Task: structure prediction
Amino acid sequence: MTTEKAEKKPELIKVDIARPRTYKWSSGKYLGRVYKEALENKKLVANRCPKCKELIWQPAAVCGRCNVEAGEDWVVMSDKGTVVQYTYLVFPLWDPHYGDRLANPYPTATIKLDDDGVFLVHFLEERDPEKLKNVKRVQAVWKEEGRGRGLGDILYFRTIDE
Amino acid sequence: MAEIMQDRVEKLKDLDVFVYHGKIFIPNTYTAGLTGSRFLIELRDNKRIMATRCQACEQVYVPARSVCKYCYGQLTEWVPVSDVGTVETYTVDGHSNGVQPMDPPIIYGIIKLDGATTGLVHMISGVDFEKLAIGMRVKAVFAEKRVGSILDIKYFAPLA
Amino acid sequence: MSERVGIVAVAQTKYSADRADVNEGELVYEAVKQVLQETGLKFAKDVTGGDALNFGIDASVTCSQDHWDGRTISNCNVMSYVGGHHSDEDKVAEDSLNAVFTACARIMSGHQDVVLVATHCKESQADKWGIENTALDPVFLRVLGLDFLSGAAMQARRYMYKYGITAEQCARVVVKNRANGLKNPLGQGTPAVTVADVLGSQVLASPIRQLDMKPASDGACAMILATEKKAKKLCARPIWIKGVSNCYETHYLGDRDLAECDALVKAAKKAYSMAGITDPDRQLSLAEISEEYSYQELLWMEGLGLCGRGEAGRLIESGTTQLGGKLPVNPSGGMLAGNPTVVAGMARIAEGVLQLRGEAGERQVRGAKTALAHGFTGVCGALQGVMILGKA
Amino acid sequence: MGNRVAIVGIGQTFHKSNRKDVTLQEMVGEAVRAALLDAQMKTQDVEAVFTANMETFENIFLPDAMMADETAAFMKPGLKVATGGTAGASVVEEGFHFVASGLFDTALVIGFEKQDCGDTTAAITGAVTPVWGKGVATGAIGEFAKQALTYMQKTGAKEEHAAMVRLKADKGACRNPYAHLRLGLKSIKEVLDSGYLVWPLKFLEFCPQSSGACALIFASEQKARKITRKPVWIADLVTVHQEPFRAGSFGDPTGKEEYSQDIAVDRLYKRNGITNPIRDICMAEIYEPSNWEEMSHYEHYHFCPRNEGWKMVEKGMTEMEGEFPVNPSGGVIATNPIGATPTIRVAEAALQVRGDAGEHQVTRDVHTAMATALGGPNWTVATLLRRSL
Result:
């Protein structure tokens, strides 16, 4: 009797806990400027470091590379660009900020914005894996209403033929 | 499942600053491990509170634990302890924190069960707040429907 | 201690109930900017031949919590602001006194000479109870719905029962600290109260009432530590770290008598022995103690050996720990006047430095020579930290 | 100057995807117990306990305090650090400083992660808050997929080379009882046919989610010589963090930016008289979340010229019997309890220096070894170990 019981794997108890926690993240002053320009003018802006002259992305009070104050030299960037890299999820990913398992409907790409713009990570409208391979030139598609969410004001980047 | 709260963004009154009201929600599944599971199964199936004993350090750990904190020995000796014990401290918790198993006020307490050398943190009920006192004798009240959880002990009630 | 470590600059933001106007990086930069300007220091990799100082900051030790920032790898929030690019940076995930402890070890090891320490926390942006609940054992404690308030309430009850501490004595702590806080220009402006106000406030978790608990607070603190040689180059009066230690309690609240704080006793003993202190209540000029709840100032005072067991109540009644008393406790106003968790430990150290440099204005302790700073992490003082600062 | 510091005790758990038989405290306790046994020490002999993990993976706040009893930290000094994937090496750095400072003569240094109680990719996605970018994250996997594509295009490396690295890793893992994935792969064909996880990364080409812990015991010189005949000295340690690359998380496709890996090893080699890394160093345990990254890191650690990492693979130089063995333990692609992974690299390198790596002990005599860690937006911690100082 005892050997039979010994073979039986001991029961293990688990505790499932699923509790969301709310947060209030502030954009702060510098990212707030990106929100304002996107909301009011459908423009993408970044501030330029006075020392290395590079655009700071995510805009901040300091250029981390030069350890100097970044200041308010704001530059309006084009919302057209070239896809540098892209990838798409084969499996749905649990996104803690949605609190849900979502397969991002859109591929995510690194897009170099024109005229010395920054490298922006955002969605591509094109979802067909084959067509994706030759997507190069893209342009932002802005939301018409419900803006006020910074980079979330851009739905995705649409393929443009140039 | 807690309802999924909707995100919203609020612009501060006189500043170009935006506050993103959102959440972080990652479900977790923790294991009680072999020792913890056996303790919880004893609650569920036998309404019995089991402890692990360290002979060398004369410790009787409740809830049962696999390591003695004093000699770092691995504990393998199980002993039952009484479901009656003494209240060492308590609080009448009136604040709501969103993670309590029931609506407050909840009386939390640490109960040193007869035979144990460590106190069990749990809930007390069935007593007027004014009658609560350190040193009070209480007895475990088991839930009718037990599932293998520390909540299989519903609460501790004053000894008659 | 072999190689003496000096604190050459400290800075704190003005504590506030809600700093929604800045993000975490901008908040910490408000403090970091001041210590950089005060010392004229650059980060080591930016030092060129032509600079006034031929050395820079070798590393940064930051202190914040992923759970409070609501972000995995939360030191990314402050990396750019603490010179982390192409440099040595590490984040301590405890009360910030432990970050200063870490910086101290880095200098005493001889591996680094100058270390920037920076901490921040915005309590206004997160769910305090939800976070604290996740610090408790998931199987046996978390499902009961406990948090640090209900834990503290059980400790307060046990301590008051065993040593005869009264609710009035706890209330006096709030009255004293809030009054001191109003003399602190960086304080949060938390309004003064009377004992009656405290005793009349709503019970949150008996015996702790609303006014027995610290207010929510946002803030940041930064300081720069250096070897003795470089400290003397960086400022006229470095404040020396004479002793520092910390110690873990057990996690299982039922394993200990909550009226005791053995880990604090042990940490204090080590810090005192390093600093050559035998009678702390006579040799200390002031003590800055982290107290989220009023009973904690009294319990921690006893753990720190500033008085006998159970005597803290009488000490507060006698005015000994008031500003102007024999042993002022929390001239800064402490957490009860408004300091964020995590930042509190360094806020204590910063006040100690200001007092020993005679820069504490209205709340200056006359002739202050030796100060104690205390910081704890976790439920019922799970990790206790003690630091002794000296003018000489 | 400070004390010299040696590793005198090494302990690991048997890393697995799931450890439902133990709580987090008990799992970490297993590694601590193994390290104490290895050093023949008792808990009283350990003066301080330093820990590291990434709290959002288990969603446990202040886990170090929660496991104080099981990790011999009860009534002892210590603290916890948390950076990114480098956390397990950041704690090695703090242990190094604390013991060298003379504050402690002995210390436990522990990296841990129990990924069976959370959702790793979800936790990593939390590294970007919604105020900056909601929903764009593809998890670390997505990032390394982009890296693999860039590496292929830039250097001409073939998928076969990546498969050879995966085969090498599996050979090591099969000879390492602590490794998580021990697949017994026979040929690169099995890797090439394993289907895409995130294009162009295949199923077998990315690290698993593991639950495990690794504990090291550090001791000051005079203590170390009493504890063990085979102390492994921490010769040096360099941490280099960095801002995120402008055009990527773990790599810079523009080719204009400096990598923290290059800066870290430059400093490490210059300070320790290393002029030809694969001659002066005998082996390395590097942090490679994917086989593609391993080839790229050969170049960033200056084991070979730029764009020629895959040639080392082709010549079999980094095999266990090779001229410069890398990751004989099976590496991160076989075992990745994230908080413990960098600590495991130091532990495995130390075992090689001691000659105690058993079946996966490399052929070459190891008097000097390097362990690296990768985390955050491409942060690096490089640790140099020596048999004698």
